[in-house]
């Protein structure tokens, strides 16, 4: 049998081998020509592609469309996984958001370190928190500055980030700060950017509610809450926090101050508030304490004489 | 009988060409326009080798060269080199047909594997000697591996669906004579 085949190859074998050699030489030659003179062969290739691929065109569009439809069906099957993926990404986004918030707070702290004076009349005394209220129903802290340092009732206490509370009760060396979350705390606020006036009412929760908004339609979660300065309780424009909506649809404040770690509090000296001790009179600002003294020229004369 | 036989192998050559064209067409479909980091098997190579080992007369040298060169041109590969490699690999296997006919499929598979590895290495070697940009090594190795893995499947499918089986005693060879 093998002998028969050998005989059959006697005259076709060399021819086939010759053909093979020619084919391989042609292919390798084409490759070498391409390597040497690439543009010419590439033009040839472009012509071949130009002839061949458009002839597939009648089939390409429908097949591509069909495959894409199939893939869409597959993507319906993958919906659960995509959902999981989105949830994971949302978690990551939350982490980024947290990072952004921390950067914002750090920025505020750095501004604080630079001693940015928002209002030249606002100077402050910094105290260290010594103790808290010691009771779950009262939200207050005790700081180590008091009447000795000129602290007065009603002054605002801040940390580097935002308003913390209000001095209520001054001892010689200590003062008590009623926090915004205390049930007795009421602070008139402005909601920016809409400029709505409202009242921040402490209710012994971490996020005190906002009430008496003039036009609740104009505020939305994320708005900034500042003190309004109404009633002279606080200087205007102190940052309190951000508006948020709780699941019950009530507006609450996410307080900017870091209530978890109250260590250093700044007590703002504010002399600007009016005392309402005589209800029949016009309410007018008090004279500033550093008004020009009529005696000053005399002392200057004495100095020049001396 | 001889005429019917000749008709049949022209038919099978046309079938080979059509199969290759369909595969090329599937590759050309604009489904993935992004660079991917994995690759499928080279089915044309697998089919060529399967058919060469089963029925050498269905895939003459010129047909293999034509298909391979067309793929080189259409897939933007260096024209001619891979085609030459495929032709040489196919001819090597064609020469082993009488030996492999009596051996098991594992021996055939090993023979195909060595041929594929050799032509891939030769291809990459020539490209690197001539300093031609080439695909990442990992991708070619992956394709080689997938092609080898898919080889038994292609062999089985060719045998059952298209009737490309090994010639058995009593069949006719390319010249219409009994083997």
Describe this structure in words.
- The complex is a heterodimer of chains A (306) and B (179).
- Chain A is α+β, with helices and mostly antiparallel strands.
- Helices cover 39% and strands 22% of the residues of chain A.
- The longest helix of chain A is centred in the first third of the chain and has 40 residues, at 38-77.
- Chain A is elongated, with a radius of gyration of 41 Å.
- Chain B has helices at 2-28, 43-54, 61-74, 81-100, 105-129, 137-161.
- With 179 residues, chain B is mainly α.
- Chain B has 6 helices and no strands.
- Chains A and B meet through α1 and α2 of A and α3 and α4 of B.
Give a short overview.
Chain A has helices spanning 2-36, 38-77, 79-113, 296-305, and strands at 123-132, 140-143, 156-158, 163-170, 175-179, 186-192, 196-201, 210-211, 224-227, 239-245, 251-255, 264-269. By secondary structure, chain A is of the alpha+beta class. Chain A starts with a helix and ends with a helix.
Biggest interface: chains and residue counts?
A-B, 32 and 30 residues
* Structural Rg of chain B: 17 Å
Give a short account of the largest sheet of chain B. Answer: none
Shape of chain A: elongated
Beta-strand percent range of chain B: under 5%
The best one-word shape of chain B is: globular
Helical stretch tally of chain A: 4
How far apart, in Å, are the first and last alpha carbons of chain B?
Answer: 15 Å
Helix residue percentage of chain A: 25-40%
